[in-house]
Fold this protein.
Amino acid sequence: MCPVFSCWLRTRGSSGHSEFQLEIEAK
């Protein structure tokens, strides 16, 4: 997991958690 993704997830918060996981799966 790249640090950039971690930062994005933090900025998005719990709401972005789902989106974050989806992005990883899509990749």
Q: What stands out?
A: The helical segments are 3-12, 14-26. The chain has two helices and no strands. The CA atoms of residues 5 and 23 lie 10 Å apart.
